Amino acid sequence: MMNLDKKKITILAVSYFSSNHLKRLFSNLIEKANNQEKLQFLIVDNSCGEDRKLYVDFNNSPNVNIICNNEKTRQRSKSHAMGLDLGLKSIKTKYTLIVDPDIHIFECNWDTFCTSQLEKDPKTILGAPYPQWKIGKVHKYPSVVFMFFQTELIKKMKKLFSPFPSFSERIYNSIVRKIIRLGGVANKHILNKFHLLRKLCFILEKSTGITSPDTGMEIINECVANKFRTVIFESPYQADFIKDGKLEYAAIAKDFELFTYRNRPIMTHMYSSGVFYWKTKKSGNLQYWKSLIEAVENKIRRNL
After folding, report:
1. How far apart are the C-alpha atoms of 65 and 46, rounded to whole Å?
2. What pLDDT was estimated at residue 26?
3. 1-164+215-233: which CATH topology?
4. Average pLDDT of 181-202?
5. DSSP letter string over 3-16?
6. How far apart are CA 304 and CA 65, in angstroms?
7. Count of CB atoms within 10 A of residue 185's CB?
8. Is the pLDDT at 211 greater than 60, yes or no?
9. What are the angstrom distances between the C-alpha of 46 and each of 86, 109, 130?
């Protein structure tokens, strides 16, 4: 067991045969942290123990714990949310960072950056919202792609990551989403090109509200009710970076998600889902994504 007295932040990730991503991510987080000794990692194994590689890869990692989620459900988002619920119960450090395995952090001293924001006001939730082109989702609060908070404040809410709308609400939301996404016209590629279409979709989205409630929606609603302060990252379009002459950033924003904070790149999310609206030809290409990450890292180093 780890000495929790020396730890400050638990990084919580749900894994479904994701050990390769997690090894890369954990190395990235440790490398970019200001206080490496205060980090610990908690993996929730959503393969019900079938992913033996996960246990082999982290067998000799003293700062990594793995717990097995034995709850089975066919719905991937629901399974992921149930894994987060299980993981959060086990966390005893002051702060929690929830991450997706397929992210990369550019921000040096990211841990100090996050904790300093919460030191200003403990009732703060920080992170990456769903990008603006994911119409119908939450844009003003962090998503579980990267969500940082004070552990006990969220635990005291006694809310879950896993609740999802009823069947009738899901049918209604599905119909409305097709309308505000203009039957598929309003995808990432088209929205990147046409500013007027972005404005139209923004107006439609604002009038209908959240029609794609996802993991953590109940907790987000509770944060709203309790007037939590938010610190959220931005997700510019590729065209926005090209306009500013930031071609390395534009390249990664085209096929993946690039988040910035006060105009500096803070993280990228691969997001290899097959969802039509934001899928691209290269969005599932891990090696290509890693090559673009290196280009951005080189640009950051040149600017130091």
Report:
1. 14
2. 97
3. Spore Coat Polysaccharide Biosynthesis Protein SpsA; Chain A (3.90.550)
4. 92
5. -GGG--EEEEEEES
6. 36
7. 12
8. yes
9. 11, 30, 23
> Which residue in this structure is represented by tokens 């096929």?
255
Q: What ranges do the domains of the chain cover? A: 1-164+215-233
Cα–Cα dist 9/11, whole Å: 6
Q: 105 pairs with which residues across the strands?
A: 267
| Residue pLDDT, tens place only, 13-39 | 999 999 999 999 999 999 999 999 999
In this structure, what token pair is assigned to residue 41?
A: 């990692």
pLDDT attached to residue 1? 42
Distances, alpha carbon 127 to alpha carbons 9, 52, 100, 230, 303, in Å: 15, 31, 12, 8, 24
pLDDT above 60: residue 157: yes
Can you tell me which residue has the tokens 């089975």?
Answer: 72
Give the E-state strand segments of 109-263 in sequence order.
124-127, 146-150, 229-232, 257-261
Q: Which amino acid belongs to residue 267? A: M
Contact 86, 43 (CB under 8 A): no
Which amino acid, residue 12?
L
Tokens of 210: 């959240």
| Spatial CA neighbour of 28 closest among 261, 303, 301, 294 | 294
Residue labelled with tokens 């590629």: 189
Burial class of residue 129 (count of CB atoms within 10 Å of its CB; 0-12, 13-18, 19+): buried
Structure tokens belonging to residue 42: 């908690």
Q: What's the Cα-to-Cα distance from 138 to each of 131, 147, 217, rounded to whole Å? A: 8, 13, 9
